Amino acid sequence: MLIPFLQKAFSLSHAASYLVIMATYLAYVLFAYPAGVLIKRTGYRRGIVLSFIFFALGLYLFVPSARLESFPLFLLASFISGTGNALLQAAVNPYVTILGPRESAAKRMSMMTVCNRAGSIIVIIFLALFIDVTRMNVQLNDLFIPFYIIAGICVLSGIFTWFAPLPEIQAAGEEEKDASVESTQVREFVATKKSVFQFPHLVLGVVALFFSLGVETLVYITAVDFADTIGLHNPERYMIYPIAATIIGCLLCITLIPRYLSQLTGLRTGVVAGLFFCLLLPVLPAQIAIYLLPVISFCFCLNWSVVWPLAISNLGKYTKVGASILVSSIIGGAIIPLFFGYLKDVTGDIQKTYWLFAPSILFIVFYAFIGYRIGLKTNVHAK
């Protein structure tokens, strides 16, 4: 939302303005592994507290960058905020995954997804209290108060997390004193590995999430462009439909998993159905095809929630570092759209460009049926 403001304030080209997104996403790659090492030393709860400190610092720096009209400082603030998010993702996702039974991990992760998507709507409402988000008639100094407030909320969130009675839990096989049968089997399996990169199901999980996040991001950010291209009225409303579809899908999964539906079955059903609709998307009449975007979002609502527990299962002492490596897959949300934009420029047809979805989703299908268990022994298979 800030890109149009920055482009005007700093007299930037379109390419330069998108450096803000790149600076944010770059943190997921550069800080992903260090985040895992840090969390291994501090624990999950302190890692979450540190993430809020990074958030607050980055958000605070947006204000002096606006006062000084310094675009490099704005990029630094974006990178620091991205670092906070990388650390938060590396701490929260594995924590929620191992907080309860493995077979209901997707249920807990889906709750997080609902909050995430709801946040996308809340932030627009919040900013609308201070600035005119519809006409984009905004000066940089209009952003001072909302950024101060958000930075303050991050500080309060960090304080709350510090004093909250959150147990410091461990994954199966991560704690040497845990003598349970499952932990013993995991430790014996992990003892044969010398590096976190020797777990194929984890590495393939990173690739699967890379493609999944790329496709999901494209569904959100191209809906308005697609609707505008084919001349639909109020094209901006078509971005809301995929978000609403994801929330509905997650709420449905929260209700059904694990009592009526296993998380693995839900993932497999969703990605196969998603592949089918993605193959129809480029060939159906455009006026019909655009409504497949929310359908695809609905089908993929479980991707993040299920691939996470599958990919970090049976990592033992490598769980925290493995989780941080999974965070680096978020860069797919920046890279895949770049390829989409290039293909759109080449073909001049946004609907035909959606063929890019097919190879991405095929890999996710491969992971859901085969990839998640490659390299695992029978007795330590993920559920």
Walk me through what this model shows.
The structure is a single chain. Residues 378-383 have low confidence and may be disordered. This protein is 70% helix and 0% strand. The longest helix is centred in the middle third of the chain and has 30 residues, at 200-229. The radius of gyration is 21 Å and the shape is globular. The chain is built from 19 helices and no strands. The chain folds into two domains: 1-164, Up-down Bundle (Growth Hormone, Chain: A), CATH 1.20.1250.20; 175-377, Up-down Bundle (Growth Hormone, Chain: A). It is mainly alpha-helical and 383 residues long. The chain has helices at residues 3-9, 14-17, 19-30, 32-42, 44-67, 71-98, 105-128, 144-163, 181-190, 200-229, 240-256, 263-280, 286-289, 292-299, 303-312, 319-327, 332-347, 350-353, 357-369.
